[in-house]
Design goal:
Number of domains: 1
Order of helices and strands: EEEEEH
Number of strands: 5
Mean pLDDT: 94
CATH class: Mainly Beta
Helix content: 25-40%
CATH topology: SH3 type barrels
CATH architecture: Roll
Strand order of the largest sheet: 3-2-1-4-5
Largest sheet: 5 strands, antiparallel
């Protein structure tokens, strides 16, 4: 399964951006979004190092809420399995 991760653009240098999510920073290519206007503090969905879609801050937050729920469910499952 592949996931796109919503990240906030911190700074831009040409077609490269420094992006952040949950305290993790990555260099991300903006090449696939060259027809979009992207600025610092915008949100993009990142997949394998490429920004593939511009999203709103609300859409990014909603995605992270779902991801956090999935991670919590997985941790609970792993903890239950360890005690079985």
């Amino acid at each position: 399964m592949c996931l796109g991760i919503p990240m906030r653009v911190v700074e831009i240098d040409g077609f490269m951006a420094r992006c952040e999510a949950k305290g993790v920073e990555r260099d991300v290519s903006l090449f696939m979004l060259q027809d979009e206007t992207i600025a610092a503090d915008d949100y993009v969905v990142v997949h394998v190092g490429y920004a593939i879609q511009k999203v709103t801050a609300e859409e990014a937050r909603s995605a992270w809420e779902v991801y956090d729920e999935m991670l919590a469910a997985e941790a609970a499952f792993d903890a239950e399995a360890a005690h079985a």
